[in-house]
Structure formats: C-alpha cells, structure tokens
Amino acid sequence: MTNPTEHALPANSMVESHEGDFGCSVMDLRKLMELRSSDGINQINVHYGGVMNLCSRLKTDPVEGLSGNPADLEKRKQVFGQNFIPPKKPKTFLELVWEALQDVTLIILEIAAIISLVLSFYRPPGEENKQCGLPVSSPEDEGEAEAGWIEGAAILFSVIIVVLVTAFNDWSKEKQFRGLQNRIEKEQKFSVIRNGHIIQLPVAEIVVGDIAQIKYGDLLPADGILIQGNDLKIDESSLTGESDHVKKSLERDPMLLSGTHVMEGSGRMVVTAVGINSQTGIIFTLLGASEGEEEEKKKKGKKQGVPENRNKAKTQDGVALEIQPLNSQEGIDNEEKEKKAAKLPKKEKSVLQGKLTRLAVQIGKAGLIMSAITVLILILYFVIDNFVIRRRPWLSECTPIYIQYFVKFFIIGITVLVVAVPEGLPLAVTISLAYSVKKMMKDNNLVRHLDACETMGNATAICSDKTGTLTMNRMTVVQAYIGDTHYHQIPSPDTLMPKVLDLIVNGISINSAYTSKILPPEKEGGLPRQVGNKTECALLGFVTDLKQDYHAVRNEVPEEKLYKVYTFNSVRKSMSTVIEKPSGGYRMYSKGASEIILRKCNRILDKKGEVMPFKNKDRDEMVRTVIEPMASEGLRTICIAYRDFNDGEPTWDNENEILTELTCIAVVGIEDPVRPEVPEAIAKCKRAGITVRMVTGDNINTARAIATKCGIVTPGDDFLCLEGKEFNRLIRNEKGEVEQEKLDKIWPKLRVLARSSPTDKHTLVKGIIDSTVGEQRQVVAVTGDGTNDGPALKKADVGFAMGIAGTDVAKEASDIILTDDNFTSIVKAVMWGRNVYDSISKFLQFQLTVNVVAVIVAFTGACITQDSPLKAVQMLWVNLIMDTFASLALATEPPTESLLKRRPYGRNKPLISRTMMKNILGHAVYQLTVIFFLVFAGEKFFDIDSGRKAPLHSPPSQHYTIIFNTFVLMQLFNEINSRKIHGERNVFAGIFRNLIFCAVVLGTFISQILIVEFGGKPFSCTKLTLSQWFWCLFIGIGELLWGQIISTIPTQSLKFLKEAGHGTTKEEITKDAEGLDEIDHAEMELRRGQILWFRGLNRIQTQIDVINTFQTGASFKGVLKRQTMGQHLDVKHVPSSSYVTVAPVTSPPTTSVPAAVSSPTLGNQSGQSIP
C-alpha cells in the first residue's frame, strides 16, 4: 500500500513488545457494535477518542494492519474469539439407525416375526395334530420342526440388515453434504492488510484488530468500523429488512455489520467483533444454533406464527433467518431439514422429486391393497376349508396352531407389501445425485444445491454472460485513439506529447481500484498475472506498454489522498476519482464505456495536446469512424477523460453536474479473446436443443461480433440482437410495466441482449420462465458474476456463479459455482443432469419389473396354493439386495456424449416413457410365464417332489428352491437389459466403464450361489444339482434374448400403453407456490409412500397444539416436548376433542407465510434466504 504514517511504528512495535491486555473487552466491543449511525459515532468519539484511538487500543495500525505474529494472533483468538460459528452436531449413526427403524412396514414385519418366533416354540402333543388338521409328524420331521423358529429369526435378521444399510446410506450422505458445505465455506476468502501487504485470508482466520479491505460485491465476514471509505453503500436488508442501501461514511455512519453486502464503493475497516460475538453470531446464539438446539445453521426462517416474533436475524453466510416462536412448524421439519445441509431456496419442488414422490405414493397404495387382499383370501380360504368344508370343530388346544397359520399368512401379506413398495427409489436418487455431485467437482462444477444438478438436465435455455464465461477474461489493450490518430497497435511513447502521456498515465493509475494490479508471471516466459478488475488490469497493462510505471504514480498519490471517488456501478457504467491539485482546485479523472463518457465530453485533446471543442457532430463522426470499427472487431471500447475545477469546491453529491463538460484524453479498444473451446460447446448445446443467449453490458457491435465468433448467431439467421433500452421499449406498456404478451413476441428470437442492466437480465429470465408460449415451460440456467446479478441468479431454475471472477453475493445466490468460469463446464453440467434423469429411469425400469412380477407371483401363488412360492426371507433378499445394490449399479453409470444428442425431456415428460413401459410389461410377461410354469409343472419337468401345499414346518423343497433361484437369475440378467432405456439394442455398450455395475452383478451372483447351496432353512433353500443350476442359468440368460425380441416391437404400434409418473400440472404448481414449502430432500427421502399419511396427521396435530397453546396461554415447553416425540415417531395420535378449537384462531400460524417475501426490488433479500 503506502509508506507507514508517523503513528504506525509505535503501534506496531507495541504489538510485539506489550503482550498485556487490550484496551477494551469483548463486551465493550459488542455493545459498541449494537449502536447505529450517530449513536455509534458519539460512543466512538466520547468513549474511545475516535477511530484511530480505538485502533491503538486494539494494538493495530490503520495503514499497516497487524504484524501477523502467530503469538499475537493466537492471543486475539483467545480474548475476542474466532471468526467461526459452530454448526449443529450431525446425527450419530445410532440416531440414524433409530430413524430407519421408524419405518412402518419394517415395524409390522418385526412384530410379525416376533410372534412367529414365539409361536414356533409351542408344540402340541402329537395325537392332537390330527384333530388340528396337521399331518402327523414322522420322526425325521422332528428335527425340521425344531427349526421352526428359524424363519422368524431370519426375518428379524433381514430387517436388521435393511436398517443398517439405510442408516449407513443416510450417514454417508450427510457426511458428503457436510464436506460440500465446508468446501463452500473454505472457498470464501477476504482481503486483509497484514504487515503492510494485502493478503487473501480464509474468513475463519480473521481476528479482531485486523484491517480488512472491502470492495463492491463483498459479503462482510465480521463486524467492523470504517477507517476510510469511497462512496460506500451497504445492503443491510439481511439484518434490518430495509431494502434501501445504507450510505456509510466516517462522518455519518461508520458501523459495518457481518453478513451485509457491499453494493457500491470500497474502503477499509478495522474488525471489532468476530464469530459468535458479531451481530450475526449473537442472533445465532439466541436461536440456539451454536448449542445445536431447535434451529439449525443455514436454515431459512419461514415467517410463521405471531407477528411480534418477526424480528429478522441473519446467519454468517447472509442467510436471512427469522427469530420464530419456538413451537412454529419449523420445529418438526428441522430433523428432516438438517439432513440436507445445503438448503434449498424456496422454489417449486424439483421436477424429479415431484414425479418420484407421486409415483412412490401411487405404487405404495397399490401394494397396500394387494397385500390386504392376499391376507384376506388366505385367511378366508383356511377358515372355509377347515371349518366349513371339513367341518372340524375349533379346539382350544389347537388355537396356537391356528394362530401360527394366521401369522404365516400375515407375514406373506407383509412380504407382498415390502416387495411392492419401491424403497430403492429414494436411495437411487440420492446415490445418483451424490455420485454426480462428486464427479461434477472434477468437471469444475461445485454444486451447492443437490437438485440443481438434476434440473440442469431439463434446461432448455442458458442466459450467459460474455466476459470471462464465453471469453478468456484476459483483457489487453490492442488499439487506441489518441489526439486525432487511430493507432491499430499500441503507439510508442515518443509519438505522444509528454503532457498527453502524463494525463493518460495519471488518468489510468489513479482512477482505478488500487487493488487492481499486474504481477510478474508465475512461470518463466508466462504472461503477467492480472489481479483485481480485469478491465482495469488491461488499462494498467497499457500504461506498462507505454514504458511508464503506475506504481510510482500510486505511491505519490496514495489512497488516503483521494478526495472523492465515484466507484463503478451498473447504473453509472463509469468511474471517477477526484484529487486536489498542488496549485489549488481539483482535478477529476473519469473512465467508462465510450458512448457514455463521450456524451459527457465537450472538449477533446488534439495532436499537440491542446484542448479543442468537441461538438455533437464530431462525436457522431468519431462513433462512426473509431468506435464502431473497433466494436465490430469484438473490442470493448473505453474512454478516458478528465475535468478541472478551478473556481472553488462544487457540491460533490450533485453527480449530474459534476460528470459533464469533460475533456476526452483517449479511447482504447480492449480485446478479450473468445475461449477456444466455446464454439464447440455452443454447437453441442444447439444439438441438445438448448438455446444459448448472451446477456452483456457491452456495446451491441462488440456483443454481436463475439456472438458470431462463438456461434450463438450465424450469418443469415432470423435472430434478434437488442440493446437494453430497445428491449425495454418493446416489452413495456405506457405505464412502464412489463407485459408478458409483448415479451413473448421477443424472447423466442432474442439471442443477444447488449448494454443490459441487471434488471433487464432479471426481466428476461423471469419472462422466459413465466412464458406459456411453447408446449413446455422453459427451464432456464443463468450465469452471473456481479453483485447485481443476484436477483437473476435466484430467479433462474439453475444459477451459475463464477468461482474466480464472481463476487460473494453472486455465489450466495447461485446453485452451482463454476470453479473455472468456463462455459464448457455448463455443458458438462447439462450432461450430468441428463445422466441423473436417465439413471433414475433405468433403475425404475428394473425395479418395477421386479415389483410387478414378485407381487403377482406372491398374490396368485397365495390364492391358489395357500403359500407364496417366494418365502418372506427370499423376498427380503430380492428386495434388499436387488434394490439397494441395483440402485448403486444403475445410478452410477457414467454419462456419454450421446446424452447431448437429444432434446431436453421437459418438465411434464413422464418418468416412465412408453418404451420403458413396453420393456417393463414385456419382461414381466416372460418372467411370469416361466415362474408359473415352474410352480405348476416344474416337478414333472425336473422329476422331483412337488413343493406345493407343504405343511406348516416342512423342510424346504428342491421344487421351490429352483423357482427362487430362477427368479433371482432372471432379475440379474434383466439388470443388464435395464442399462438402456431408449430401445437401444446393444445393452453391453460401455459396461466396463462402470466398474461398480460389474462388481454388483458379480457379487449378487456369487451371493445367490452361496444362499442356494448353504442357505438352508433360513432361506427355505436346499442344494441343487449341476443340471438344475444350468437350467436356471439358461432361463436367466433367456432374459437377454427376450430383451432383443422386445426391442424389435415398434413402440408406436402399442398405443394402449400408458405413461406413468407425470410431473405436476400448472394448476398444482401454482397451488404449491402459494406459500407451502416444497417437499424438501428429506421428505423425498420418504423411504416408503405411507409415511406421507402420518406426516399429514403430524402437521395437523402441531397446528392444533400451536392454537391450543395460544388460547390457553399454556407454557411452550409441553408442546415442544410433544413435538420432539412426534419427530421421532413420525406418527401422532390426534385427540378427538381438539378439532373443536381449530376454527376460531387459524389465522396467526398460517396467514403470515406470504409475508416472507417482502422486498421485491432486490430479489426478496429480506425475507428469503440465500443459502
């Protein structure tokens, strides 16, 4: 920075020598930071004797910063705390096991198994067996009968395995989310001055007393007091809810708070409070986040409950929280929400989640009905057969035996249900998404919200920035217009007049952020490194090319001497800096977009450096001969100008009068070459049915030239390239409101939007998303890097922020961070997104075939032979192993380029297409034919004893073992068929690229051999001969041949096939969006469809509790206690009397939801969280 001022040295040496206590305590500073504006200034001046004295009390130097001595930093951390807010503790493995055990179907199975276990030890005397309708046991059956307990034990054992697998999956998923969260947090660095050098420090390393550099786009990581500021404006809406930007200055309001956003300007602050002592941290402590109580970190408060409790709060990442009544609805969902550490903003629920939830519920209902009918038929048949047809009396000593039969029937029924409910589905989604997210990191996509990955697969439009995304963001000045001469290369310094050269060098060096600089290359012979704003770096590079040194100028005029700075923002599109001239008066240097600055110039320097008048016609001439030719070559044109104020001091706040009558020094053309890989990526997007639009702040000619180089527009196409002004004129009515119909005429043809403001970007994105022109609703992805892109990034279905050039604010609002700022990474994200969708479909195709066959076999078998051909434990094996491992195998298929050769699926496309339905039913027909043949004619075919109508504890038969074995092997080979869902013939293509798949298929096959040969009584299996094994294998391999036959049948001819798993319709979406929170990830984790019913009851009960509590004024604790119990059980009894009290007071808890979206101007920044 600058040479240390006089008081720097003693302060610094004091830090080293004097390790005594600091001149103020944590509590003093906390109290100080709670004050605002004038109160704060008074307290600083009266109590601390000004900001400089406060710095010396904190033993820091306002210019040089802290010394960086480790002992001193450690001591500061001990005294003032670390800049870190402890997150809520993750759930332990045992808690997750307990949660998995809450599953309804599992509980029913456990109870049935225990009853079966207890009853199996009851043995009536032999002579009564005859009366009870049991065959008299022969001596060798005795041993078998003793083993009757095995089935119950095996079921319990299977349940334990299922629970452990589920819990392990949840645990590893949570671990991944936490890892992702930590990575996102580590990414955030901040500029701090230590020992006179500006360094980038991870936010957690900042200590009290640090001097931090703040600039446009930063998210403040700690509380502090301004030491020096230029035109600083802060958005404090996340803390105060006020959407207006607050001006900060030493005279009026120097208090800066953590979690607020810098919207304009720059400056330096001394850090006064970090971590849990900062304003954010205090609010967190109130919420109990640090203690891991009800509320959790990074959770968005849903405004609900009594209006008084709507005090706004804030988390360290700028997520708006609300302090809520403790018993609001959030309490219940917290447990689930915590599963997903990276929280979703409130968008309509992700497309895939919606489709899957509906499908799971539908299948669950069907399974429930089937299993109930199975049990009923079995019991009725048994009762009628025994007591009506055979006219046996009901003997009391036979009761346990009859109960044993009933329990057996009940277990068969439950087994049908277990097989019917596709619990592998949520697992497949989770595995697929988690796997994709992990792999996407390698492709430079840091996914912040899981569902963004899947939404990307449906994307139909991408609105991309130009600078840095499509171009390399390595800017260099290649042309210049100085003193009536257009130089097509950089001029040599001797050709310019010394005073003109001087003005250029000063105009660039002083009037640019001092954080922008050019450093020597890292490697020998490499390009110099550009740090800071790339456009400013290009201009500084221009100064260096003119053989001048910008450092010398900056040392002469340090930042403290700048009199007034008008920083760059999206409205001004220019930057100006005022300095005092040694001879008196002021000089202002300005730079900015050429057409904007030239409009404000009325003089220009000629060849000799003399000032000449510059009229409108001269300007038009210059635009035609200089600026347009530069722009049509794809150059960005920047004008440099100045103005002197010699007659006293003007009113600096009156910007319009200050920024006029400028004198133009030069216009430069800056080149930012297109990234070489971008044209190919855009061609891929076009093939994949995705429209790429370029939205840029650049001049329209530059934009069009770059768009042509990239291939966004091709010569001769009927596409629109508009400027922001023209765009607004076409889409707004007389009152200035956007009209959707007008917008619908424009956006389908629009390809380039130039000179656009962030509002234009937001309007365009919103317009495309809300449009009803096409047959499908558009799914829009947007890239952004600036603070002002926040609203557009949040509005988009998927927001991409730039990892290198992006500001903290943009990253906060985004769903995916591009770590290399490259457009090709977006195309990779599309590929992964489509792959997720396909993986789920593959798994669905496989899973539903298993379900359909198993349910029909169990049901018809039970009805005809009073026993399911597939036993409970066998079904559990099929269900658990096939589901869990198949979801792992099919969900981890790597993506291929062919995914980009088809159009996006669209939001309303059903999950199960006609082709898939054809495959499911086709394979089901094959499998059912085989199994029924084996059940009813297998014993003749293999010449073995029949296994049908076996008595209660009879030993396993070869007959039924063959059926079980064949069934599993058919599933195994069908798993290979399921790798393709679009009717491709070669199902083995790329099979060795997926090692997990190969491992799973092999592992399942080996396990099956072990079960059949050594499974014995628990698995109801007995050893098979080699020829029987070969027959089973042969029938299994038949699946592959049958698959080929199915794929020859054209899908079009099968008109009767229905699709299933449709998306939500428009009406439902609007209903959902009216303030209901989406079913979040945990809810989609709904491992079984039935849980929905219980959760509904749970919610009604909580609302009633809330109302009762408000009415009776009872303590909140009771309600809380009941809630936490409810959370664990997921089921709650609804007392019959409480419905009476619902009517009178329903409004407080429910009606305040819409209020959560309060400030429309900047993308609901107050009420809504930016995760």
TrEMBL record:
Q: Where is this region: Disordered?
A: 294-317, 1146-1171
- Annotated compartments: Cell projection, Cilium, Flagellum membrane; Membrane
Coiled-coil stretches are none
Q: What is its EC number?
A: 7.2.2.10
Question: Where is composition skewed (Low complexity) in this entry?
Answer: 1146-1161
Main localization, broad class: membrane
- Point to the regions of Polar residues compositional bias: 1162-1171
What InterPro entries does UniProt report for this protein, alphabetically? ATP_Ca_trans_C (IPR022141), ATPase_P-typ_cation-transptr_C (IPR006068), ATPase_P-typ_cation-transptr_N (IPR004014), ATPase_P-typ_cyto_dom_N (IPR023299), ATPase_P-typ_P_site (IPR018303), ATPase_P-typ_TM_dom_sf (IPR023298), ATPase_P-typ_transduc_dom_A_sf (IPR008250), ATPase_P-type_domA (IPR059000)
Keyword field: ATP-binding, Calcium, Calcium transport, Calmodulin-binding, Cell membrane, Cell projection, Cilium, Flagellum, Ion transport, Magnesium, Membrane, Metal-binding, Nucleotide-binding, Phosphoprotein, Translocase, Transmembrane, Transmembrane helix, Transport
Cellular-component GO terms for this entry: plasma membrane; sperm flagellum
Transmembrane region(s)? 368-389, 409-435, 843-864, 916-937, 957-974, 995-1016, 1028-1049
- Membrane-related topology note: Multi-pass membrane protein
SUPFAM superfamilies hit by this protein: Calcium ATPase, transduction domain A, Calcium ATPase, transmembrane domain M, HAD-like, Metal cation-transporting ATPase, ATP-binding domain N
Which PANTHER family does UniProt cross-reference here?
CATION TRANSPORTING ATPASE, PLASMA MEMBRANE CALCIUM-TRANSPORTING ATPASE 4
> What is the similarity comment for this entry?
Belongs to the cation transport ATPase (P-type) (TC 3.A.3) family. Type IIB subfamily.
Q: What is this protein called?
A: Calcium-transporting ATPase
